[in-house]
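Students often ask why we bother predicting the structure of a whole assembly rather than each chain alone. The short answer is interfaces. A chain on its own may look different once its partners are present, and contacts between molecules only exist in the joint model. In this exercise we take two input lines together and write out one structure for the complete complex. Read the inputs first and try to guess which parts will touch.
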Amino acid sequence: MSETTKFLLAEREIPESWYNLAADLPSPPPPPLDPATGRPLDPATLAPLFPHALIAQEMASERWIPIPEEVRSVYRLWRPTPLLRARNLEQRLGTPAHIYYKYEGVSPTGSHKPNTAVAQAFYNRAEGVRRLVTETGAGQWGSSLAFAGAMFGLEVQVFMVRVSYQQKPYRKALMETYGARCLPSPSPETAAGRRFLAEDPDHPGSLGIAISEAVEVAAQNPDAKYALGSVLNHVLLHQTVIGLEAMRQMEMAGEWPDVLVGCTGGGSNFAGLVFPFLGRSLREGRRLRVVAAEPAACPSLTRGVYAWDFGDSAGTTPLMKMHTLGSGFVPPGFHAGGLRYHGMAPMVSHLRELGLIEAVALGQRECFEAGVLFARSEGIVPAPEATHAVRAAIREAEAAREAREPRVILFNLCGHGHFDMQAYADFFAGRLEDRELTAEELARSLASLPRLR
Amino acid sequence: MSETTKFLLAEREIPESWYNLAADLPSPPPPPLDPATGRPLDPATLAPLFPHALIAQEMASERWIPIPEEVRSVYRLWRPTPLLRARNLEQRLGTPAHIYYKYEGVSPTGSHKPNTAVAQAFYNRAEGVRRLVTETGAGQWGSSLAFAGAMFGLEVQVFMVRVSYQQKPYRKALMETYGARCLPSPSPETAAGRRFLAEDPDHPGSLGIAISEAVEVAAQNPDAKYALGSVLNHVLLHQTVIGLEAMRQMEMAGEWPDVLVGCTGGGSNFAGLVFPFLGRSLREGRRLRVVAAEPAACPSLTRGVYAWDFGDSAGTTPLMKMHTLGSGFVPPGFHAGGLRYHGMAPMVSHLRELGLIEAVALGQRECFEAGVLFARSEGIVPAPEATHAVRAAIREAEAAREAREPRVILFNLCGHGHFDMQAYADFFAGRLEDRELTAEELARSLASLPRLR
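Now the answer. The structure tokens for the assembled complex follow.
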């Protein structure tokens, strides 16, 4: 029989500040470089793209950054989110481990993305911006920014990776319901888009290309700014509400995690859960294992190189030191659309270099198997991205069973799968393939890495 | 700028009993009749279809019926659900009314349906049943029973109205993810299905037909029982957790509703919100307006007759006194799949006859307009069914504006629209038609009403 153990916070316990991990690291991550000079970027050069408040957060070193009351007010629509113990899953696995998960799928768009979308919309609106331009892969980020734009009266324009635009008309409909404009990328509306369309009129698009287009539009329109859904420090910062709430909830449960697990595409939901726990472990000298679960088809942390690279495919962003597959990388088709980025957040990459986190690459079939097992055990259907965290958490629970140790595992269930049932249908129909990157493909893609002067 | 006012209950405030409106009515609703004799049904004849506990609840007259701890445990996965005040919508409408809504879309399947699915699965499991058979229209009920079956280790078989089965492959995938078997109705697996297929091999199906098939399978298999997602007293009873929570939350808000609004298909989400408030109003002699919002394309309360009718199309169920369009009614195509039933719950019909509730029929375009306005104001995209409640609540708020009265309106937002974005896409593309039933169609359909001996 089913049993639910849930830990709920009161509304007043929505965090009042975001947590900045930079304050607690033994060494700072390398700053972004200006590709023209090869020297650390002057923050002022970011002003055409981002409001001043977000640029300041990007560079911030203080540990706590207050969350504006207007942002907390919108957070209240769905936060605090629940933390649950997966007792049925534990029983099915026959593990002595305790498996907890933080559930971000209760947000209006079904994922963790609104945590930063709301903050970004607020700061832009506060500085007089009228239009936000962004890119989206699977559509979770685009629809979340569309939601946030509606909440603060901002126009939102979304460049959606063409192959997703065609496969996921419902995500486009969701963005339009919130009043946003969504168009396929590469598009004829930008110089970058026209360049890629000239190479291939049926170009399937990539996140890197869509970023190039969005950045171009924002840079050329004084009333518009750019918004990014992952990778950057301020985005990861906003996501720390996840981990801050989860720390209190683990205290309610009377336990503390031995292992943290999150899936990684650009790194934002992973960072959101992990950073507050990791910072506290560093401050208190406690041991904490952290596992990043990434798709074998887009394995930046496990097979990429740690190098300076562009955030986009056209080479218009600053250079960031990160684990990357090369900014020209176009991943093979697989279903976790939110995990298809060529690089990893510089802050997450830095943690990997410091030896503070582990990484594992997973095939999509084993992930969907885990997703189905989770749905049948716990009642919630995970988003394809989140199935990677589920699978990695199950591996940890199985290892605890082998070791006969009652380890405490906490993972981030960053979204529900209600928009992604085609992926589950494909899984049941045996239509999913596990496609690993070949060494040749990787070498070809890495050849696109910029050479620093 | 956006502002969120939410009223949250603690987990221990999940109701401990369901509320039975029958205890507070001035007269009881007419009991179901045995079609063979025309006399009140012997409850024992329902035993092949339902477990004893649910038959007892169907006939119960006591005011409070305890919720088993096993059911409350599964409720805890998503309950208590939030109640929110739609302040942004109020501002956009320029109304002095206060608009509150109870939000049931946070459940694992995105609607209120699990409230009864979980209870039904529990009682069946407790009496040794191994398999539940049911029907579903749009898929909300089928996926909710599939979820509940997974929680209690029951097999679930779902007959899905064929036109929905073809249009909504994602709902089928959701049921399969939970381990259920979903097949299109009419199907060749039952005598009833074969009969309708013989008439028309491409029969689009109807809820009435799918019920006939599910009832037939359950009646013929000793280890299987039937489960219904609306209409019956015990189903409405289980939904009263919605209104019981909402009463406490309105007390937290320091207000009491002047008007309650819910959408009606079979009546379950409407009853769930309304019955506890209505019972208290009756006991305390307070005035309370209640508005049922139904689709103009399937207008059982506003244009149906109050008569004895079958619950299914093959005429295999007991006869129920209800507002009905005739059990042979096949509604024209429209998007609120959960509101396509030919009849109305006998208890809700009885309230209409007693003059305790009002009803209004709405076109689907004005409902989707209201849904989009709500999404852009409040951040949540309503299910097509729920847009009817939104539109009716907006009408009430506009009436309050005309009257310059600060009325308090509470409506049930019974589900999110994440599975129904095709409907919104059709709305934006101008592909939605408003199709009212003609007088001839109604007369033809009513000719199927049974004649009592």
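Check your guess against this: The domain at 5-14+67-110+234-446 of chain A is CATH 3.40.50.1100 (Rossmann fold).
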